[in-house]
Amino acid sequence: MPFHKKTLILGLGWALVLVRPVHAACDPGDKFTDTFSASITYLRQLFHDEPPRVVRDHIVSISSQASSLTFEYEDGGTLRISLHDGQLQIDDRVVGRFPQGGALESSWRQFVLEAARIGTGEVLTLARDWQPDGLSREEEGLVSLVQERLAALSAPGGGAGLPQAVPPADAGGLIIDISDLSDPDHLEPLFRRAAGLEGSALRVTVPGGQARAGHYSIGSGETVKGPLLVIRGDADVFGTLEGNLATVDGNVTVYPGAVVTGDVLAVAGDVRDRGGEIRGEIRTLRAQPTPSQPKPPAEAAPSRLALTARNAAGLAGVFITLLLIGTGMVMFARPPLEVVSDTVAASFGRAFLVGLLGQILLLPTFGMLVVGLILSVAGILLLPFAVIVYGLLVVVAVLGGFLAVAHAMGERYTRRQLALGASITSANSYRYVTVGLVGILTLWAVWVFFGWVPVAGTLLLAAAALVTWLLATVGFGAALLSRAGYREEFAGRLLPAEALTDEFLWATPQFGVPAQSRPSTRTPPPPHR
Amino acid sequence: MRRAFGTSALLLFLWLIAPSTLLSAQDYRTVTLSKQYRGQDSLQAEIEFAAGVLRVRPGSPGSLYRMELSYDPERFAPLSKVDSSGTDLRLGIKSSGQAGISVGLKNDRPQDGLIELNPRTILSLDVTLGAAQADLDLGGLRVSQAEIRTGASETTLRFSSPNRVECEQMSISVGAAEFSGYQLGNGDCKTINVDGGVGGVLVDLTGAWKRDATVTLAVALGDISLVLPKEVGVELTLDRFLSNFNPEGFVHEGRVYRSLNYATAGRRLSLSLTSTVGVVKVEWK
User: Fold this and answer.
1) What does pTM read for this prediction?
2) Can you tell me the ipTM of this complex?
């Protein structure tokens, strides 16, 4: 491909990558390489330029009617070329016809037979030079077609090259000891390094053995002593290998009658047992890219209106829930609720301090409870129940205290309204709790509707959270102070309830209340006649 | 020359600004380990599987064993040790010291192992499972003895077809885990011990019993589901505390329950069951 065309493709590919959506660039799961290769693939398709496919292996099939050669790609695909009943098929699709028994068929069968006994890299080299004699014009066209397809293939590792012995490395060079193949993870990086060497740089020392590059075969009468490493090629064993055998980017095939006395390891290849004897362990190691899991669709950011509506719905839900709980408490536990509420009103600061202290001591108290129960041995059985009860008590104290605060707020507000002459027919605890909750949640309503304002929104949220925590702390403290509403010492109720009856007020002088003069002892005047 | 320099500079610039995700690709590895069967009479197989999904099943007769393992090399390493005679084997996956909870953006997936054992060799099996989900099918093998220990796992043991030799003992120790044993009658074991910790246990004793056997089953905290064969006489000794048991299909004298066919059955099972907290369910098949 011309240089300018390559540069153009590369440049446009990167340009596409750079102008990809910002959210994709920010996404850590973004498959950058996918984007790039997709861009390149697209542009290549635009220029009708197919990328070369790297071949991992080849398979030969010959019968009286057909002969086929299949190349397996490293990325999983295949290319199948088959001559079958006078038809040339590529990937099972008929691309041409030829006279049966002619020069093309006989030459192809010879080629396929040869391919059965040599390595994949050599098959590719031979295929590119395949020029049968005595072909008709149609047959020559078919050969060109086959070679056109094969030209797009490349051997693993950038080309098989000719089989050769690998000279030992110089001092400080690459040394791979394959006398122990039990840890392929440890050996694999060394193998990869060896497979990356080309030309004169390909020098590897195998202690006590030898290294070969390209396809290597041990003949049926042959005996090779010492460990054998085959780089970028297949190892076919027909004879005897006294030692370990390892390949990188190649397969090991052990044929009937063959013997390998040691272990066999194939890195990025397979071990095929065709009936030979392998006395050691057989290992293969293959890197496997982690399949990318489908990413969940990115959730679109809600609009400002939708966000407000969502928050408002949440607030309404919380309000209704608290209102229902509050109604239940008023209905079934009004006296303790009123005592806690009065404690909030009469001892606000004290309740806050106690609530704060209570929050600090929550966990230590729980820890002491658990430890105490464990140490008492007999109490271990009670531990699960104690944990549940403790949790429930905390929830009741916090929630009940919070509702008592709402009650106190509502009561104070309603009394003020009454004092101002408002006509309120239902000045009771139900109303107090409702009014108080509305007051507290108004703060949150402000945040709901104005929370989107950049800085002020955050401040509103912080203020609402802080005030809510403050009130909850006061309520919790009041619940503790009043022992869940059963002690009135801090409720500001200085007089017993009976002291507030009309009879008591009439009969008993009160401090600060001017006493009414007693009626005179004189006999009342007779009624006027 | 100038053009080449410009292109190189462009490529260098693009390489520098390329996201680091290019370099952080995480690859799993697949390793296969096997050994040819060369007439070994017996095999002492020890399987240790630290974490992931494990399947064990009978393999091809030409292979003494075969393990295919897909794993994260950063956290785990394959375990493979076999002596020269091929009669003492250790297989599985172990932590490489960096295991634990992986937190990150990479796509985590479990380690996946498949172990195939030779059906011709007499096996003495020792399986230790960690945080694993295991499916062990020992049907069709020649298991003479088996010991299975599970940790926080979900284990299924089955004899889908009869064991080819007599099994002396099978011990199963279950930690905080779920255990299901199916068609254990096909295992033809003289004694079966299931020691459960916390978690449900299902023991299916159906199958082709060839002799009388003793089964001991103890679970500390969890339900026990028993599937008993109708054609075998069962004598159940029950020791329970805070456990519920419905003795359907039994007649009992004190703590001993006997199946209705106990006196006439050709094969008899002596079943000792201890349950501390849980429900014992019995199903006849």
Assistant:
1) 0.55
2) 0.80
